[in-house]
Amino acid sequence: MGLGRIYRNYFKNNMFMRILLIFTIIAILTIVILSYLMFSSLSQSIVEKELNNQKAAMENVSRYLDQRYQSVENIARDMYRNEMLFSNISFLMEHPYSQYVQHRMDQFFNETNNNSTDPLQYFQQVMDENGDIRNIMLYSSEKQFLSVFKPNKQYKQLTTDMTHSYIPDVMAMDYKGITAPNYWIRKAADQWAPELYAIRVPINNRQLKNAGQFLVYLDSGGITDALTSYKDSFKGDIAVLSADGKVLYDSEGKYYGKTYPYMDVTDSLYDGGNTRPAEVSSRMYINKLTSADNGYVVIGAVPKKDVEASYSGIRKTIITISGICILFAIFFPAFFVINFANRTNRIIRITRKVKNGDLSARIDNPGEDELGQISRSFNDMLDELNLYIERVYKAEIKQKQTELVALQARINPHFLYNTLEVIRMRAISQGAKDVGEMIYSLSVLFKSLVKQKKIYTLKDELEACRLYLELFRIRYKEKFSYTIDSDPALQGKSVMRLSLQPLIENYIVHGIQTNRDDNHLDIRVREEGDMLVAVITDNGKGITPERLAEIHEELGKPEESGEMFGLRSVHSRLQFLYGPTYGVEIDSRPGVGTVVTVRYPNREGTDAEDV
Asked: Which residue numbers delimit the HAMP domain (predicted)?
């Protein structure tokens, strides 16, 4: 009931409110959809970035483990290269330690470098050079002896026959690569550190038959060192698992000796040698990298909440921006729609006034849009209607008033010309010929200024300048002279009225020096491409640099300040009519004179406007 009433009161008969409602709904839906798509795209990009950072760290772990496996193989390979060393290692593997000591004593005096051929010294040196090696073990398949080497020259040899130990069974298993340390071997070596992984390499005799196993226990803390450069660039946990799912390394240190909690997810991932795209469990993002050659799996697990924390700020920002956009989408259109509605209501009110007989009413709507055009058309219609009424009822009175104004316009100038001519003739009759000439020049100058011409040319402007200068030539007699030079072909060019005379007047008022006999003003007009250039040169007082800077600053102002009216008037009119390329330029040196350059468009008089 309430919504229906609101619709009838505000929307049913109001076109503008219906437009506003439809536009608002469309704008809000568009903004919400775009915001969702933007957030989805940005969040997915951040998730991919975080997972890629973790992949890079996992690949670094894989490279490190492969390098460690290669280094263990290199140790075994070095044993083969040193024939005497390998002979002693083989003797140690197949005889009790007491016999090995006797064997070493027998050959002691025949060797030149005992340290390089003694297995104990050799393996101690290897452990010194590789700080992450915790144990080196040699197992003899034939004699079932297990030799255990520890740092600081600790060594023991164990007899591991099948009747008393599971170690022969463990060593007989055909596997190599990187694995978790076996419980029975740990027990025999008394090595219970949880953060260990094992690398096992078979040892062959000279006949290339398997003689036993070379086993190395390494501290997985070295993997942490390999991740040092990545610790600030990835989130979550990185773990290394053996082929049977045992934890070889855990960056969080929580799962040593335990079952890895995401085995159900990792088992479902593609078990290949390449990095797969991240799979998503219910709570975690999982990455998996499998090394088929060395038998281990690198797992990366990132909690969703940690990744979501990375783009929570983006979510807030997008929500804030979306809210602001929705407000703008509502209030700005509302402002314009309400404005249009008010303007429409004003038009309706004025039409009702006219309907009631008020023909003086006008719509005040200066806009250039459709409503503005309707308003101006309506006002023009009323103007035409009033004009028609005037033509019908006031034609005769208006005609008489027009004739009277025209008569006054003709009489007043003629009265002034006739009066000046009477004064001139009287001056000549009394012998004042120079006064007569001045009056004549003034009369002709006044006629040229008052006379309205449709086309005003360079010839007209130069003639006005000549008449003005002639007045002062007569006044100052032999102290002042002038020259006007212009190509006759340029006389018909169109120029702006009173564009040179105010500049000449500036010289007469400010530049002429009455104490000199060589005052001179030169006016030259030339053609430069699509420009007409007039140059006015004098040898007057000149302008100081400070005052010249003020003049330039005044000419550059967008509005007149009341100073330098004549110079500013010419410059601003030229730029207003023809553009910034045209105008007045002034240059002066104190005691030398002033040069004023005026630039016009090069136009024929027939195309000129009456300015």
From this structure: 338-390
Contact partners, residue 173, CB within 8 Å, separation at least 6? none
- Cβ-based neighbour number of residue 248 at 10 Å: 24
Q: What is the DSSP string of 55-110?
A: HHHHHHHHHHHHHHHHHHHHHHHHHHHSHHHHHHHHHHHHS-HHHHHHHHHHHHTT
Q: Is the pLDDT of residue 397 over 80?
A: no
Q: Which amino acid is at 353?
A: K
Give ∠ CA 181-184-186 in degrees, rounded to 5.
50
Residues near 96 by Cβ (< 8 Å), separated by ≥ 6? 145, 157
Contacts 24+ apart (CB under 8 A), 275-281: 275/55, 275/58, 275/59, 278/51, 280/304
Strand-strand pairing, 145-150 and 237-242: unpaired
Q: How far apart are CA 550 and CA 387, in angstroms?
A: 52
- Which whole number is the average pLDDT over 1-22? 64
Orientation of helix 312-355 relative to helix 370-393, angle to 10°: 10
- What are residue 418's phi and psi, to 5 degrees? -65, -40
Task: Write the pLDDT tens digit of every residue in 411-445.
Answer: 445 445 555 555 555 556 565 556 666 666 666 66
Highest mean pLDDT among 253-262, 445-454, 557-566: 253-262
Phi, psi of 165 (to 5 degrees): -155, 150
The candidate with the shortest Cα–Cα distance to 240, out of 182, 298, 179, 176, is 298
Task: Determine the length of the chain.
Answer: 611
The secondary structure of 543-602 as a DSSP string is --HHHHHHHHHHHHSSS--SSSHHHHHHHHHHHHHH-TT-EEEEEEETTTEEEEEEEEE-
Dihedral (CA of 572, 573, 574, 575) sign = positive
d(CA 437, CA 445): 12
> Phi/psi at 279 (nearest 5 deg)?
-100, 155
3-state class (DSSP) for residue 227: coil
Q: Which helix (H) or strand (E) holds 520?
A: strand 519-528
pLDDT greater at residue 400 or residue 317: 317
From residue 554, alpha-carbon distances to 511, 561, 567 in Å are: 19, 8, 10
> Rounded to an integer, what is the distance from CA 532 to the centroid of its chain?
46
pLDDT tens column, 292-310: 888 888 988 888 888 877 7
- The encoded tokens of residue 466 equal 């000549």
For residue 401, CA distances in Å to 217, 397, 436, 556 come to 123, 6, 39, 46
> Interhelix angle for 433-450 vs 458-476, to 10°?
150
Residue type, 187: K
Which tokens hold the place of 390?
């005037």
Nearest CA to 463 out of 413, 508, 498, 423 is that of 498
Burial of 330 per CB tally in 10 Å (0-12, 13-18, 19+): middle
Q: What is the pLDDT of residue 390?
A: 63
How far apart, in whole angstroms, are the C-alpha atoms of residue 285 and residue 107?
61
By the 8 A CB rule, do 584 and 600 touch?
A: no
In contact, 583 and 571? CB cutoff 8 Å: yes
Query: Helix, strand, or coil here: 187?
Result: helix
Residues 6+ apart with CB under 8 A from 438: 471, 474, 475
